[in-house]
Design brief:
448 residues, single chain, alpha+beta, 9 helices, 15 strands, 6-stranded mixed beta sheet
Length: 448
Amino acid sequence: MRQDGRGLQEIRKVKIQSNILRKSEGSVLVSVGDTKIICRGSVKESSEFLKGTGTGWITASCKNITGNTIHSRSKERNRKEFNKVTTQISNLIENSLLAVTELAILGERVIHIDCDILQIDGDFIAPCITAAFTTLRLVVDGLLQKKLVATDPLQESIAAINTGILATGECAVDLTEDESMGSLATMLLVMTESGRFVECHSSGKMTTFKGQQLNECLIYGQAAIEDVLAYQKEALFLDIETKEKVDSQTIIIATGNMGKAREFSSMFQKAGYKIKTMNDFPELPEVEETGKTFEENARLKAETIAHLLKCPVLADDSGLKVDALDGRPGVYSARFAGEQKSDAANNAKLLYELTNIPDEKRAAQFHCTLVFAAPQKESLVVEADWNGHIGRIPRGENGFGYDPLFIVDGLDKTAAELPENEKNAISHRGQAMAKLQEKWQVWLNQQE
């Protein structure tokens, strides 16, 4: 048993979150224990050194933005020394990515991968390489979605791990900082999903060790990389098999709320399409709404699911914007009072924050953004607002969420006091659906 309670072949807890940054062609946050790496990708369409070559390139950079030193065996490594190390790491990341990329498919494009080390509690080089490849995968998926590349240039997935021979003579994976400092030898492994080595760097520390120990490091390392690849696939939603079949006449509504799905379904069914919801695909992981705007969240849901299921997907993101609260709760409407998503708690918090706000300054809007996505098409986006103001006491039994507090402009009624058919006709979602109705068939049938 190691100091932190792990077994010799057990890696630290891994979490990989994708698409965490706005205005980025690919981004991930990789957490391995308390080591945190944020990685972003960008694409440049041309570069002087690529012109006329007909092939692309990948560059990488790595920075420590924690302000902390990275301790060596003597616990003395200054900023200048670390900058030298990050240059070496940048080259290592770059070489690893180039090894599994068919550069000719990229055309004359440069993909740049930028890794920032946010926090360190052990090995950080392997998480940087894993984060870099995951980001590259997202960037390439974007190029494929936009038909900027004809086929996938990535030959297979890669991930990395560090292993070492502890002071006890035992071999272990994913060493902590203290373990690495006291180890007899360390080894960095970068491997493909098929088990082929991309990089293998080993270093002894003024002592001797046996070949059998190195072999154990290789065996343990390969098993650990398989674990990391599984986390990577989960973050990228790869290799998911669904029991439910999807054909060319199926449209997915990206919700498990059947009431909401019924609102959308009629326009598609009239055109001869079958409707399915997320309830039909329990195998799919939930798409995290990490966007900062309604459109970003709706895009994440629609485009991710369309990519997975290879069919058209409609997603919405809706919420309440209150002028006196600078547009809050906005994208956080469902969890305004906490992650439990309680309507009663959300309404209570809203009333509390508006306690001293006079009636004439309680203007608000319900907002809806709809994103219709399909494989290899630029998504169709429509949006609408429903104007009103926030009352002082809840009224009505027909609605949900903030409906009992939202008094509709031009009516002395809250949204919860309106009959369902009347509400659906004039609401933010109803208005957005009317806009979508005018455009979706032309968009869906249009050749890109």
